[in-house]
């Protein structure tokens, strides 16, 4: 007997059948890149390889990678779970943290952080940096001991005085040359026939201490230079002279030309002796030495160093005064 259902009011709900014809399934295989995508990827990788990084960029990347590796625990690495060494340490009671004995409160006494990596960039031996630091500290300490704190005003005054002394030294040197020249001219006077003849011994042949102390240092320095020059000349001749034989027929000119005859020089007296008078004069301030020299030129030769003029009488009419300020 088949049951009939009216308008379907009392009919049971029909179960929905799966529509296998319209169902879609995800492709389990990875999506293949197209030829265009592969070309673009290869070009990007080629450009990345072609970029030459600077030394600073490479150092920065190395430092970042090193810092990342040091800040990451090996226990957080998924590969660490399969590590046999970690498994053995876990059996011995290691549960993470620092290595070493446990204190009474349960904290680790040993090292909890990895040893810091110090990259050595030079070729010096171990401990050389510490030696350099020690020497640098000693040099700084020694410099601090020797360095005296100076007031800025005092420093400016000292520099100003040094410059002024250097300027006065040049003026003193010029005044000494003028005094020496005038004394040389004064030592020569015309005779009755109108010819000039020396009244005293020439300056170059006089004893050194008989020269005025005002310009004796200038004369002494020049004579010392001349003596050193002659000694060097004689030494060079002696080194370059070849062994020769004596010939009785050679005259004096031939011997001199061949270097067989030694030149005899007349040295000024007391050049190597101690001169306390000159030392006392040189110990004076440069301004005082210049003042004495200017007074000597005015009194002995009626000559004004600033006017560059020799006056006919002692009145020196027209000269403003002794100092340089008077002639401004």
TrEMBL record:
A Pfam family reported for this protein in Swiss-Prot or TrEMBL: DUF4187
Compositional bias per record (Polar residues), positions renumbered to this chain: 189-199
SMART domains named in the record: DUF4187, G_patch
Annotated region described as Disordered, given as residue ranges: 1-82, 94-138, 183-206, 230-274
Domain G-patch: 81-131
GO molecular function list: nucleic acid binding
GO CC terms in record: kinetochore
Biased composition (Basic and acidic residues): 42-69, 113-138
Name the UniProt record assigns to this protein: G-patch domain-containing protein
Source species of the chain: Emericellopsis atlantica
């Amino acid at each position: 007997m088949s049951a009939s259902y009216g308008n379907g009011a009392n009919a049971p709900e029909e179960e929905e059948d799966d529509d296998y014809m319209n169902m879609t399934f995800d492709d389990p295989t990875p999506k293949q890149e197209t030829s265009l995508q592969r070309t673009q990827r290869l070009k990007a990788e080629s450009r990345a390889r072609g970029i030459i990084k600077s030394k600073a960029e490479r150092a920065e990347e190395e430092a970042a990678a090193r810092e990342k590796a040091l800040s990451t625990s090996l226990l957080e690495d998924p590969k660490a779970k399969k590590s046999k060494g970690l498994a053995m340490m876990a059996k011995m009671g290691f549960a993470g943290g620092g290595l070493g004995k446990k204190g009474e409160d349960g904290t680790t006494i040993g090292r909890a952080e990895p040893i810091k990596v110090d990259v050595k960039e030079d070729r010096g031996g171990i401990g050389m940096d510490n030696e350099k630091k020690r020497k640098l500290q000693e040099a700084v300490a020694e410099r601090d001991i020797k360095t005296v704190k100076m007031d800025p005003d005092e420093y400016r005054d000292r520099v100003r005085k040094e410059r002024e002394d250097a300027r006065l030294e040049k003026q003193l040197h010029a005044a000494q040359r003028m005094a020496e020249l005038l004394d040389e001219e004064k030592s020569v006077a015309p005779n009755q026939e109108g010819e000039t003849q020396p009244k005293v011994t020439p300056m170059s042949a006089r004893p050194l201490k008989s020269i005025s102390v005002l310009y004796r240092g200038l004369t002494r320095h020049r004579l010392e230079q001349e003596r050193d020059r002659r000694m060097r000349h004689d030494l060079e001749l002696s080194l370059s002279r070849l062994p020769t034989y004596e010939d009785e027929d050679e005259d004096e000119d031939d011997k001199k030309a061949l270097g067989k005859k030694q030149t005899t020089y007349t040295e000024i007296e007391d050049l190597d002796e101690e001169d306390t008078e000159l030392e006392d004069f040189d110990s004076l301030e440069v301004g005082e030495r210049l003042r004495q020299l200017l007074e000597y030129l005015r009194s002995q030769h009626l000559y004004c160093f600033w006017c560059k003029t020799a006056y006919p009488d002692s009145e020196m009419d027209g000269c403003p005064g002794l100092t340089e300020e008077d002639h401004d």
